[in-house]
Amino acid sequence: MAEYKGIKGFTIQSLASDPTNLVAGQIWYNTATTVIKGYVAGAGAWSSGGNTNNKNQGTGCLGIQTAAMYGGGKTGSPTVTTSVDTSETYNGTAWTETNDLTTAVYANGAFGSVTAGASFGGRNAANTLQDRTEEYNGTCWSTVPGTLNTARAVISGCGTQTAGLFCGGGPSPPTGKNMYAESYNGTTWTEEADLNVGRMGIQNAGTTTAALAIAGVPPDTGSDYTELWNGTSWTEVNDLTTPRAEMAGCGITTAAMIAGGQSGPGEPRVANVEQYNGTSWTEVADIATARKAYPGGATSSPSGAFCIWGGADTPTSNAGTTATEEWNDPVLSTVTFTAS
Question: Is the residue at 339 inside a domain?
Answer without folding.
Answer: no
